[in-house]
Fold these 2 entries.
Entry 1:
Amino acid sequence: MKKLTESMTTCDLTSRRSFLKALATAPLLALTDAGATRVFASPRSGADMILTNCNLITMDDNKPLARAMAIKGANIVGIGSHDEMSQFIDSKTTVLDLHQESVSPGLIDAHSHLIAFGQMQLKFVILRPPQVNSFETLRKVLAKAAVSRPKGEWIVGRGFRDFREGRFPTRHDLDDAVPNNPLLIIHWSGQFGIANTMALKKADLLKADLKDPYGSAYLRGKDKLPNGILVHYPAIYSVYNPPMEDHEQIEAASWAMKLFAEQGITCVHDNFVPAQKAQTYLEMAQRSELPIRIRVYPYIPNLERCKLLLSKVKRYQAPMLRLQGVKLAIDGYPLMYKPLDKNREHLVQPMHPRDQFEAIIKAIHDADYQVDVHAVGDKAVDMTLDCFLKVCGNSAECRRRRHRMEHFPFRNLDSIGRAADYGVPVCSQPEMITVRGDELLAKADRNLVNTITPIATFIKEGAMICFGADVPAFPSYLPLDSVRTAMSRKTEKGKQLDPSERISFMEGLRCHTINAAYSGFDEHDIGSLEVGKKADFVVWNKDLTKMSSAADLSGLKPEATFVDGKMVYESENGYVLRRKKHL
Ligand SMILES: [Zn+2]
């Protein structure tokens, strides 16, 4: 398989498949508009499918509710009452009587990593709590995994969070459990790793004069040698970057996309894509094997790699797959004005000095791509907003370019106001409350923790807030978990965080549909049910207008998921047949 960047420099690219266009000079907005081509002309006036007798939650402010929808080819051609839609019925139209079931736009997950999710679930040792919550439980799980592997074979685990011991283990804590295999374990967030001694030796990193890679660190013991703790991706991947064969990547992507489609997701923004993984999406798109839409944001670790990517990559866009922007990170453990946790200050490392950070953002901006920054701490968020404003020049230009931010969990009213003013889409993970709420309550400023992921404030201030599960960092890929947690604001142990930040179900649905579409320049095509848009929608088993508390979501699930008017998931065989109305 050719690397993505190589293949994209070849001039045969456009001839390989018609949907793949090398548009090296088109500005991003023009590019997005090009993707919104709508075809209405047809020799047949009838629709291919009519949904009738249903509660359509459209997410279109001009017509929020409707009873019937007509679909022709990949597009919605009519929305309204059954009588209004009857004009689209001819002898070839399939009419589905949905018996009052609810229909929403297809859900959009604006931040997840599908191939990495598949890789973790299918290939790695899972180290999530509560199974792993102490050095003893960690060692037990790792030792068990080592028994079935030949000596010398790499073992990779991921998902550990906190340990009873109150610190990360070092290589010395892991060597006994896995003495004969090189071992790399990765924190749930993906930001930290721990290698055993054999792994460090194998990577030739067990030396006192070792230099830290850019934006990254090898923590040291008293003996000045690396103690096995690795801060940020460059240090982690310098030890070992678990390889995946082409077929394994396709298997991982297919596995993840199937799970997502079952949850009503019709589009995913994959915001951490190395070139090889982007190539997998490209090849799947060329073979029409993408059941859901993918928007790709390749990750770059430094200015040099950023420039290399931008010099080689050519724009590609198609309804199912688009290179949307470029991703970078400014922090891992939150970069704060006041330390979040004094015991973890040694883990706080800005990934770039300010001048480099700004130069990277400017390079992406100048190349007409959407910048996508991972920023968690309040200081990291402000640095990002400062740079966006500086490269754009003014807030109107910021709004036009929509450079976006991932995570932004702390409630700083000034920063939220600026995000709203600059039109910066913010992709939030309400599951932060479940996953980190209890841990942060125990160690950080209670007022600060009480207001994490302040979705109601983002909405009130007019910021463009959307949701993404961020698997495999976060454990749950379920979009309804994000919505439920945003509605309840309860931690894993059931503690209530600031109830004034709770939102309604419909606000949560908006974050997973039209707002998420906006964050990826897709709002002209998807994210709401409107005439002329793509027929991406979900049929639900319960009435969505009755979801007034988080508890109401229990048992709520999709009956069927459609992309481009075609069913990509149905809850049981024959769903469509059962709903087919005989005319
Ligand atoms: Zn992520």
Note: The chain has 23 helices and 25 strands.
Entry 2:
Amino acid sequence: MGRIAMVGGGIVGTCAAMMLARDGHDVTVLERDPTPPPPPNSAWADWERRGVNQFRMVHYFLPKFREVAEQELPGLTEAMVAAGALRNNPIDGAPADITGGRRAGDERFDTVTARRPVAESVVAAMAATTPGLTIRRGIAVVGLLATVGPNGVVHVTGVRTADGEEITADLVVDAGGRRSAMAQWLRDCGSPGPVEVIEDSGFVYYARHFRSPDGSVPPAFGGLLQPYGSISILTLPADNGTWGVGVIASSKDAALRALLDVECWERVVKSYPLVAHWIDAEPITNVELMAKIEDRQRTYVIDGLPVATGVVPLADAWACTNPSLGRGISIGLIHAAALRTLLHDENFGDPTALAVRWSEVTAETVQPLFHDTLNFDRHRLAEIEAAMKGHDYETTDPAWLLGKALETAMFHDPDLLRGFIDIASLTARGADVMARPGLAERAMALADPTPPPGPDRGGLLALIGA
Ligand SMILES: Cc1cc2nc3c(=O)[nH]c(=O)nc-3n(C[C@H](O)[C@H](O)[C@H](O)COP(=O)(O)OP(=O)(O)OC[C@H]3O[C@@H](n4cnc5c(N)ncnc54)[C@H](O)[C@@H]3O)c2cc1C
């Protein structure tokens, strides 16, 4: 068991810290934001979190989050529900002639979801009472303590804080999120730093939150993420009768910046009949913009050699993407559970082997999910940009074509519906779903090319007055 210093106490970092402390490690989380977490019922209004840009943007917690949380952090999802998180199952919310009724195994789609500040305050409250875990807020890490090993590789032995404090550790976990400065700190110590691949994801979000008078959430007529030519619309149920609605567009679509105007945004969402009813309620925010969202991956082991030892990247600090599939926290939790497993019997005596093994574990557990997500996003962005020019999107990638077929065919076959929900829930990968006997053939045969109801590109531009 070791002393672990975690940089960043965001939602995944804090969950990982709890998992590691429960396994017997001595864990200290250093979180730059000073505000102590308010109770869940005031977290939305009161919790200032400058360190997380997307703190009040629409969030959804997939069934995979619930599954990993139930295994690794017993009591967390129950505490979320006690704070008003919504527990539901998409099979129960859809008509029986589409679902074929409840089946054994459908419980894998059980979901516990909430607005991000509400969920994170529940996580923080649980962390505050976890033995072996110390959370220090208002402590900014500004650099590393390091030596150079006999092989010339920088070995991290701790962190330095903005107050000049030096905190030593057997392992530093970087949970500093998508904008983590770890690469620069490593370079400052003489390491080449991780190889970073960064690209603008190309998407922009115009989102609002709503509340119902009676604690209910609107029924879903289709998936949570619905593609409509040059935009997608997200409808995400949350806690205490609240939910988020987001319009996602290409960041190149200058005309759609008009969506920042509340009246224009409402006119547009109301014109799509399958989602219009989601905004027939009390708004609790104006239109919030999230732009300049990067896809980013940091690789710490190159040709079998770590760029540094004594430090491992976790969750968004390892890799992050455009969030329209709502996977970031679930992938992060899978990553956190994998770190807990890796460190279970670790004595920290061979830092090079540990760094290499973490890179392998990352490649086995979360890298394929990251790649699937990027693949989906690249196709969807190309499809959006084709629609902006008035074309259909042409591709021969069978994974994309099958996924598109499944999106409409799922309404005509309960097995296809479950395949679609598995992919959306992260309970199975697309390639594994498509490999189920006969599923791909049935999806292609039942696919419906008719676009869902709503304005085409010309109609959309007319609505926003472009
Ligand atoms: C617009 C948007 C919508 C999203 N929607 C969803 C969704 O619906 N579902 C989903 O699963 N995911 C979603 N995500 C992704 C999700 O927000 C991230 O995957 C998640 O926040 C990652 O958690 P984390 O703990 O790794 O990092 P973060 O939550 O970003 O936390 C990082 C923490 O590190 C701290 N920190 C940084 N630097 C330092 C330092 N030097 N010293 C001390 N502390 C430091 C920060 O203050 C912060 O608290 C969305 C992302 C965006 C951008």
Note: The chain has three domains: 1-200+293-377, 203-290, 395-463.
